[in-house]
From TrEMBL:
Protein family membership: Belongs to the protein disulfide isomerase family.
One Pfam family matching this protein: Thioredoxin
Origin species: Saccharomyces cerevisiae x Saccharomyces kudriavzevii (strain VIN7) (Yeast)
UniProt cross-references to PROSITE patterns, sorted A to Z: THIOREDOXIN_2
Name of this protein: Mpd2p
Record flagged with keyword Coiled coil: yes
Transmembrane segments: none
GO biological process, one term: protein folding
Amino acid sequence: MKLHGFLFSVLSTCVVILPALAYSEAVTMVKSIEQYFDICNRNDSYTMIKYYTSWCQHCKTLAPVYEELGELYAKKANKDDTPINFLEVNCEFFGPTLCTDLPGFPIIELVKPRTKPLVLPKLDWSSMKFHERLWQRIKTWFNNPEYQLDTSRVVRFEGSRNLKSLSNFIDTVRSKDTEERFIEHIFDGSRNCSEELRSQQLLCKAGKEYYSDTLSKLYGDVNGLEKERRRLEALIKQNGDDLSKEVKEKLKIIRLQLSLLSHIEDQLEDTSSHDEL
């Protein structure tokens, strides 16, 4: 999401005066562009955003549901969960800036935590002529990462706007995102399993061992990977009805191994598609 540079200097410092409405403390009404990007670009929390207008009837119906959703996650939050911020953006005030390209109202999006630093490339200003410095500063205004939102971090909700559907949406995105980050950790040889939660450390070690002992040797071997997939799927099928704690832990490791294998297969498929282009 990009905004025109000259709008940053004017609007990001302005606090928009919004109608005083009785909202829950769990939901924050956005009052400035600066506030919006500051919250959305945090690296330690998710951000749920509701874009709405006062004249939209569906927005009015959603309002108490969204408020209840925010209160629900405020109550059930625990120290092991990544926090969720709940924002609402009045598009009658932020239409030309934060609400561009929206297909209608209300729109609900979940922004995943930032994983990359918000830094601009370092430039050698002293070596530039005046017109070059001027042009670079203009480009910097337009590309300031502090006032942009990486679209790969944004997941738009599409479904019935009720408490259960919205809650399932949040839990699904968080669960998938957690799994993806866990898998990336396993493949990252520079990181060790002590960085994970204690409950995940044994699983992390099992994943790293599986990658080192098995997957790394099968990389590029499509037939070998397919054979390994069939082996893992057969193990899950054979033990799926056993509810003992020992077998449950075993299945947890096997499912992780299957996820790691799928990750390798996806990488090979992406490489193959790129080569064809």
